[in-house]
């Protein structure tokens, strides 16, 4: 079974079980690649983490039931796995900006997230207009020192962390390169915590015998990487990631290892300029 079929099978399974308990890790056990790899592929192909996709699909179907059946709000809440009408109302209002009662009374008829359809035509739409240089290399072991973040980045915390790091990076001694910074990223082992990840704004160092206050060090083992060259403004970086996970990996014979991937900002990185270059490294097997 290929990536497209696997993700669509997962989507179909979710649809069949929207009113039942869905164990995220059990879903991942039924696919043919690692939990970490599955998470990244699903996220890029659907635009949602697995957990958020299920939650939004349930709320969307609940909104239809509010308009198309006479079941009470609390019965609809229980149907879609909410423990109380209060928790359902909070989640519903966060998405639809109104309470379920008002939604039903005013007949809003606004759906939020319909079922995803993943097929070859979908991938062609992602691939259209994308031209990225790709290489594969063995990268020797290296060490980094930098500021660490853990969370879901919903409030743009990583951008703020980079601002803070750029003010403090000269505190790092024994930097191997003065004009290179690394954005190091790793998600967790369990899909139950999939929206949280670890991230470092960092520099490569010759040794980590001195670590500035509030910073951390990390050693990255020798590993084979696939390297994608993103050329252009950083505001188009999401399109490159969509191509990587939605097109390149599904067409390749490689899987992402559970390790740190990273963005490499060198002397040819120029923030928002059209000729700016960022290199994206994924550990592979």
Secondary-structure blueprint of this entry?
Blueprint: H1 3-16, H2 24-29, H3 35-46, H4 50-68, H5 73-79, H6 85-96, H7 100-106, H8 120-127, E1 133-139, E2 142-151, H9 157-168, E3 181-187, E4 197-205, E5 216-220, E6 223-231, H10 237-251, E7 261-265, E8 277-283
Antiparallel strand pairs: 1-6, 2-4, 2-5, 3-4, 3-7, 6-8, 7-8
Describe this structure in words.
By secondary structure, this protein is an alpha+beta fold. It has 10 helices and 8 strands. Helix 5 packs across helix 6 (85-96) and helix 8 packs across helix 10. The radius of gyration is 22 Å and the shape is elongated. The relative contact order is 0.15.
Instruction: Give the integer mean of the pLDDT values.
Output: 85
Low-confidence stretches: none
Q: Could you give the order of strands across the largest sheet?
A: 1-6-8-7-3-4-2-5
SS element count, helices: 10
Biggest beta sheet attributes? 8 strands, antiparallel
Assign a percent range to the helix content.
25-40%
Radius of gyration: 22 Å
Through-space gap between termini: 18 Å
Q: Report the strand count.
A: 8
Strand content: 15-25%
* SS-derived structural category: alpha+beta
Shape: elongated
Q: SSE string, helix = H, strand = E? A: HHHHHHHHEEHEEEEHEE
In short:
With 285 residues, the chain is of the alpha+beta class. Helix content is 39%, strand content 21%.
Which key terms come to mind for this protein?
285 residues, single chain, 8 strands, alpha+beta, elongated
């Amino acid at each position: 079974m290929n990536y497209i079929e696997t993700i669509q099978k997962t989507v179909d399974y979710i649809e069949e079980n929207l009113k039942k308990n869905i164990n995220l890790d059990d879903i991942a056990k039924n696919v043919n690649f690692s939990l970490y790899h599955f998470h990244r592929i699903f996220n890029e192909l659907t635009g949602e983490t697995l957990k958020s996709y299920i939650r939004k699909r349930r709320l969307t179907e609940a909104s239809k039931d509010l308009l198309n059946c006479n079941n009470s709000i609390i019965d609809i809440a229980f149907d879609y796995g909410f423990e109380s009408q209060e928790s359902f109302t909070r989640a519903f209002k966060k998405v639809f900006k109104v309470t379920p009662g008002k939604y039903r009374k005013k007949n809003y008829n606004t759906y939020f997230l319909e079922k995803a359809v993943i097929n070859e035509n979908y991938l062609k739409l992602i691939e259209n207009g994308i031209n990225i240089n790709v290489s594969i290399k063995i990268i020797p072991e290296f060490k980094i020192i930098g500021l660490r973040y853990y969370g879901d980045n919903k409030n743009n915390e990583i951008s703020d962390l980079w601002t803070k790091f750029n003010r403090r990076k000269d505190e790092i001694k024994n930097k191997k390169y003065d004009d290179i910074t690394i954005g190091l990223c790793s998600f967790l082992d369990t899909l139950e915590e999939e929206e949280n990840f670890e991230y470092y704004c960092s520099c490569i160092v010759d040794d980590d015998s001195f670590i500035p206050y509030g910073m951390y060090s990390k050693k990255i083992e020798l590993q084979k990487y696939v390297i994608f060259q993103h050329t252009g403004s950083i505001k188009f970086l999401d399109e490159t990631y969509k191509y990587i996970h939605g097109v390149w990996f599904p067409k390749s014979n490689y899987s992402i290892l559970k390790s740190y991937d990273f963005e490499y900002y060198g002397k040819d990185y120029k923030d928002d300029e059209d000729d700016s270059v960022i290199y994206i490294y994924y550990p592979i097997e």
